[in-house]
Amino acid sequence: MTLNLDNLPEETKKKIQELTALGQNLEFLTQQKIQIDTSLRETELAIDELTKVTPETTVYKNIGGILVKAERNKLLDEKKSYKTTLEMRSKTLEQKTERTRKTFETLQKSLQADLQYK
Questions:
Q1: Reduced to 3 states, what is the DSSP secondary structure of residue 63?
Q2: Is the dihedral of CA 17, 112, 3, 7 positive or negative?
Q3: Tens-digit pLDDT profile for residues 63-111
Q4: What are residue 7's DSSP bridge partners?
Q5: How far is CA 2 from CA 5, 112, 115, in A?
Q6: Rounded-to-integer distance, Cα 108 and Cα 87, Å
Q7: Could you give the domains of the chain?
Q8: Cβ contacts of residue 44 below 8 Å, gap of 6+?
């Protein structure tokens, strides 16, 4: 079945546009969440490794593509702080994604009902 958009009411056209925008936003949020969660896992691995070594062990951190000697305890504190930040971002993105998904599903059902009567 082909749908001719020219014959649809303006309200239905707007719903289709909004649904498309919500779908794109949902995809963007999902990609961001994946990136944040990947960074979180990498940070957790770094924390685990830093915890295993003694404070006297020479460690390095990556700054702008170069490795710089760092103090283990200070680097560990930085990584723990960064982990907390990432966890908050991940939770916020999860909530935002869920709200967007619910809005998307509600609008999708409404649009389906509108189109069923055409």
A1: strand
A2: negative
A3: 999 999 999 999 999 999 999 999 999 999 999 999 999 999 999 999 9
A4: none
A5: 9, 14, 12
A6: 31
A7: 22-116 (1.10.287.370)
A8: 83
